[in-house]
Design goal:
6 strands, single chain, OsmC/Ohr_fam, about 140 residues, GMP Synthetase, Chain A, domain 3, 3-stranded mixed sheet, KH_dom-like_a/b, 3 helices, 3-stranded antiparallel sheet, alpha+beta
Length: about 140
């Protein structure tokens, strides 16, 4: 069974440094209202970035395999937090935006669907605790 391990170390104040199996590190920090100094990523928002990154890599791989012409694409993710502690995302909105000339919308939608429904493990984890709302937008130039 595969596993991942990260080591996260306190760097003083409200700042942590976390390693990654890739060999790159990142800093995690509290909001300024809770003592952060604006030098790190927020933990919950980092989860949203992980979701977008996981699905984005799936879609990028599928774009290559399907030999699709896409100038650019982005993924906007917004999470709605519960009101009570511990606060967690109860609803997450994911928007895929594709840009280019003569986009093959049906194949791009298939790439998104494959990521959302089959390949993205982070998406599957989110489904365990949040309602997922997925939309795709095509911006033909």
């Amino acid at each position: 069974m595969a596993s991942h391990k990260v080591v996260t170390t306190w760097k003083g104040g409200m700042r942590m440094e976390s390693d990654n199996p890739s060999g790159h590190n990142l800093f995690i920090e509290a909001d300024p209202e809770f003592g952060g100094q604006g030098q790190g990523l927020r933990p919950k928002a980092l989860m949203l970035s992980s979701l977008a990154g996981c699905s984005g890599l799936d879609v990028a791989s599928l774009i290559k395999k399907m030999k699709l012409e896409v100038d650019d694409f982005s993924i906007d993710v917004e999470g709605e937090l519960t009101d009570e502690h511990p606060k967690y995302y109860h609803t997450v909105h994911v928007e895929y935006h594709f840009y280019g000339k003569d986009l093959n919308e049906s194949k791009l939608q298939k790439a998104v669907d494959l990521s959302v429904e089959r390949y993205c493990g982070v998406m599957e984890m989110f489904r365990k605790f949040a309602q997922m709302n997925i939309k795709t937008f095509f911006h033909n130039s």
